[in-house]
Amino acid sequence: MSSRIPQSFIDEVVTRTDIVELIDNHVPLKKKGKEFAACCPFHNEKTASFTVSAEKQFYHCFGCGAHGTALGFLMEYERLDFIEAVEVLAQQHGLEIPKDDSTFIRNDHQDLYGLLEQANTYFQQNLRQQKHAVDYLKNRGVSGEIAAKYDLGFAADGFDNFLKQFNPLATEEKLIEIGLVKKNDKGNLYDRFRNRIVFPIKDRRGRVIGFGGRVLDDAVPKYLNSPETPVFHKSDALYGLYEARKSKLSSKSLIVVEGYMDVVALAQHGIDNVVATLGTATTSQHIQQLYRCTQEIIFCFDGDRAGREAAWRAAQQTIPLFKDGLEAKFLFLPQGEDPDSLIRTRGKEIFLQYVNDGDSISNFIFSKLSEDIDTRTPSGKARLAQISKPLLEKFPNGVFKKLIFEELEKKVGLPISYTANPDKLKKSNAATNNKATPVRLAVAALLHQPSLSLDIESLSLLERCQLPGVPLLTKIIRIWKSEPELSHAALIERFRDQPEEQQIQKLMSWSPPELIEPEKALKDALTWIERKTQSSRVQELIDKESTAGLTEDERQELNQLLRQKAP
User: What is the three-class DSSP state of 26?
Assistant: First the structure.
């Protein structure tokens, strides 16, 4: 999907938002000097290290390093993407995102979403009129309340019932595009879903993006999904995610099952933090979506060979995304059971016991890797180390990666080296973050006192300078000279998804002693940059003179620079 929200609109939304009020609604803040403080909502701590600056409209945690604007907070805390965060703030201020094609390019497929929602309504109405379909759900233990919660519907048997209903409302091409109608070899159109319970698949915002259908008898295929469409992609769609996010349990954990009826059956028994993949293997896109909504993913698979292979594929997709603070668990049901059948025959408590007894990701990995290896022998231990190390290296750097390698070391009885020691990285980053280089001080001084930009008359020297960090400094000065009323938060949003984003956010909360006098810090830094730039140019001209020779203009420039350097 192509989308671009006008920068001016983002500026407006961020400027209108009071980050203190926004965060205080989620995390109670206490006044602490010029700032506000709280225990960080992004990691466990007993002493408040999370601060919010009303002046800069910026938050920062000195414990875990989390930082950002109001948009950043919503994205992290509410697990929203950027556009969703903008929409939330815009709605709070009664603003509508511009849809002027000259300034706003967004192919949002509203016509397709509209048709899919109409189809959803049609299927729901159809279910109420089909007694045998209602009886089928009742026999499966599904109440009217749960059917309504998940918007269950029914596609009646027949060649073109749906097509007749929608032909006047949509072109044939649109109905084919959203996967509700197909064309046979003779060129005739017919309904894709016939004589099936229909399960609407929704995105995280609650929009219907596709459907799944289940037969009422033993016909095949038992389940049928919408095909790939401009708004429906099985590789990142999860059934029940929209409903699960409303559960009080979802922020703590989400259970991943394999079928629509598993989700509905568990919800019927009060377990509503459940989602399902759509008959496909778990993908990295699925994992990313889930971890944006929860701290722990609980994978629930059948206990047969196919279920264990599916679990292993899910684990391999999880490993590269498994950051500190997250959890993953793997549970296997008895042979021949699925969540639907288990909870209906043995009850909620037994199912939850399986959840509690599930393997942690580390236990599951070592159990899988140890299959067919005798880890009591030296050769077996060497084999385990050999096959484990490449996989464990894929974990993101952090405490968990260190601990799981320590676990491997205990199993083999020898130290195992691996890349990117997290302790060294932290020390290295801390040293870098605290190093008061002139360029870093110049940027930080401007972030402390933006009005200093207006005192800089010319940018020609900075534009010629090749020193690291100077292009960012130049860009900030240029922005604030042209838009002096721009807020700190709006400035940060100008760098979203750009290479300088993390650097500028870190400098926003950096307060070395030199910044007690930001005007002097900037003046000294600019003087240093000027000297370094002149020295580099002198050397460049001297080198050229000894090889290719100088033009008359270059010779005059060199003489002038040398006179300036003279005491």
Answer: coil
pLDDT at 421: 43
Q: What is the pTM of this model?
A: 0.65
CA separation for the pair 394, 521 (Å, rounded):
43
Instruction: Name beta bridge partners: 304.
Output: none
At 483, which amino acid appears? E
Cis status of the peptide bond prior to 221, with omega within 30 of 0:
yes
Say what percent of the chain tops pLDDT 90: 42
Which of 5-14, 392-401, 432-441 has the highest mean predicted lDDT (pLDDT)? Answer: 392-401
> Residue 129: which CATH number?
3.90.980.10
Pairwise CA distance, residues 176 & 199, whole Å: 19
230 domain-assigned = no
CATH of the domain at 457: 1.10.860.10
Of 106, 134, 164, which one is at a domain's C-terminal end?
106
Specify the higher pLDDT residue, 290 or 455: 290
- Residues 456, 351 within the same domain: no
Strands (E), 28-149: 30-32, 35-38, 50-53, 58-61, 67-68, 105-106
How far is 192 from 181, CA to CA, in rounded Å?
A: 5
Phi, psi (degrees; rounded to nearest 5) at 502: -65, -40
Q: Residue 106 has what pLDDT?
A: 44
pLDDT digits (tens, 9 = 90+) for 410-421: 999 988 887 754
Same-domain status, 338 and 439? no
Q: How many domains does the chain have?
A: 5
pLDDT tens track for 338-361 = 999 999 999 999 999 999 999 999
Answer whether residue 429 is part of any domain: no
Residues 324, 330, 336: CA angle, nearest 5 degrees: 170
Distances (CA, A) of 531 to 156, 526, 534, 536, 538: 80, 9, 5, 9, 10
- Report how far residue 80's alpha carbon sits from residue 22's, in angstroms, rounded to the nearest whole number: 15
Q: Which residues of 478-494 are buried (b: 16+ CB within 10 A; e: fewer)?
A: ebbeebeebbbbbbbbb
Residues 463 and 418 in one domain: no
Same domain, 96 and 215: no
Structural contact between residues 142 and 268, judged by C-beta atoms closer than 8 angstroms? yes
Q: Give me the domain span that covers residue 186.
A: 110-225
What number is the average pLDDT over the span 375-402?
Answer: 93
Chain mean position to CA 396: 15
Q: Which of 55, 82, 106 is the last residue of a domain?
A: 106
Q: Based on the domain organization, do 123 and 139 belong to the same domain?
A: yes
pLDDT of 565? 55
| pLDDT greater than 50 at residue 422 | no
C-beta neighbour count of 19 within 10 angstroms:
23
Instruction: Write the CATH number for 255.
Output: 3.40.1360.10
> In this structure, what CATH number is given to the domain that contains residue 407?
1.20.50
Pair (43, 10) in one structural domain:
yes
